[in-house]
Amino acid sequence: MQRTVLLVPKYQVVYDALRKDIESGRLPAGGRVPSEADLGSRFGASRITVGRAVRDLQMQGLVERRIGSGTYVRRQASTAATDCTFGILVPDLPDIEIFEPLVQGLLSAPGARAHAFLWGGGESPATGRAAAAWARVQQYIAKRVDGVFFAPLEGLPAGDTTNLRIVSALDEARIPVVLLDRSVHPYPKRGPYDLVGIDNRRVGFAITEHLLNAGARRVAFLGTTNGASTIAGRRAGYREAIDVLQADGALTHLPVPSPADRAALAAYLDANEPDGIVCAHDRGAAQLMHALLALGRSIPGDIRLAGVDDVEYAAWLPVPLTTVRQPVREIGEAAVAAMLERRIHPGRPARDIFVQCTLVVRQSCGEKAG
Asked: What distance in Å separates the CA atoms of residue 224 and residue 280, rounded to the nearest whole number?
């Protein structure tokens, strides 16, 4: 059994219904969307709630607001954003479970239907992915693609500049870039590129707050030291939650050792006695869970555990995992909308576009899931 804590908000209900009307043709291209007052009556929602749903539709490129006139279903965009060829570069796809459905969402987005996509990344062994990604981007530049969706490589050695080389080469070729999931810079820095993903700091805060509310008192964090900016963001949110909620902060700068090093992990547990661990992602949480059980620790009796991503196997681990579900298909859809907007308005400021996550409660946190 599991329990979804964050129910679908009312604005999401309004958004989903209007989007379905647009995609089915019930609201035709060029047609006027009902007023916010009318939509409020239809859905029993406030104008603020309706306004947020309409803004999300606008962000997706499905509607446009006309001052003094109203909101209209967007017609096919100008030639600046039609019949384009876009490159997709996701080198870490074999290792990171969220990327496959994210790319599927990108390719199936309503705004993608009029365009062609070139696939690249994920076909090389881990040790050769940086070189393969660099070669692929050179191909995209040679083909003069109209834009590139890029998920920067993670876990690169210190001093490796592959991610920066890739975006710099695309900049020089004047090819727009939309980043997927993560920045090319260490957290909290950002570059001059649209980024579509989740607010990792807030996610780290939320999952830490949940473990504390579930009864944990000494919460630690598991995350790699040379990982993506996403992990650093989640670690920052974890530390912020410990501080803001005035919890025991003794472990905020004592990260959990790699689950692969059972001796180091056992020593850490004996010395620091954490009763809750926030894992930067479900893959690490799964590895840690198996290690803890092998060491004779009970989950959640001795240690409450939570992850991030809600990968397919999260519910089927020895102790079903509490986690944060990433709306990965929606991230892909939002990325397409961001790219089309960037093609039409290249001079607009870069944006961080965050898609809302959902906390999924299962047994590993110690709170009843059903």
From this structure: 8
pLDDT tens readout for residues 210-232: 999 999 999 999 998 666 789 99
With tokens 């409660």, the residue in question is: 361
Whole-angstrom distance, CA of residue 264 vs CA of residue 262: 6
> What is the reported pLDDT for 92?
87
What phi, psi does 262 have (nearest 5°)?
-60, -40
CA-to-CA distance for 356 and 216, rounded, in angstroms?
25
Between CA 223 and CA 242 the distance in angstroms is: 16
Query: Which of helix, strand or coil describes residue 64?
Result: strand
What are the strands, taking DSSP E only, across 153-218? Answer: 177-180, 194-197
Q: Whole-model pTM?
A: 0.80
Q: Which domains does the chain have, with CATH numbers?
A: 3-73 (1.10.10.10), 80-197+327-357 (3.40.50.2300), 200-325 (3.40.50.2300)
| CA atoms of 273 and 153, how far apart (whole Å) | 34
Helix (H, G, I), strand (E, B) or coil at 78: coil
Taking Cα atoms as reference points, which of 62, 132, 67, 59 lies closest to residue 93? 132
What is the distance between the alpha carbons of residues 320 and 299, in angstroms, rounded to a whole number? 10
Whether 6 shows a pLDDT value over 80: the answer reads no
Nearest-angstrom CA–CA distance, 160 and 20: 45
